[in-house]
Amino acid sequence: MAKEAGAKSGKAAGWSDYKPEEVEELIVGLANQGMTPSEIGMALRNQKGIPSVKKLTGMNLEKILEKRGMRGDMPRDLLDLIGRSVVLHRHMQANRKDMTAKRGYQLTVSKIRKLRNYYIRKGRVDREWRYTPEAAELLLK
After folding, report:
1. What pTM does this model have?
2. Which of 50, 53, 80, 89 has the greatest CB tally within 10 Å of its CB?
3. What's the pLDDT tens digit per position in 69-98?
């Protein structure tokens, strides 16, 4: 079986036309357009033919954005969970007897609290930040 170039090795594929500095500039440009890191990765893969930023630059996308001072205030995974909780909370307001939604909301809030504690230990979230449905609505606007 033939092995695909760069598939498992730590090296960039030989067919890539981009230099690490060019990739970083592309990332910064896309971030300035308001794209999230996952959207940037998909755009680089689909539009520019860059399958792995890490193999070309030696750093992942988040590290590049952090180096350039473009990292958001809240970690992306925490924001995604907060977004899910807002949707579930609105659904529960409209459908009071939906106990499955209530359970899903409880599980999501639990994940948010666990992730919050982790990010407090890592220094990414302020110690005073607490999850409330009202604060979550404001945070996502």
Report:
1. 0.71
2. 53
3. 887 788 889 999 999 999 999 999 999 999
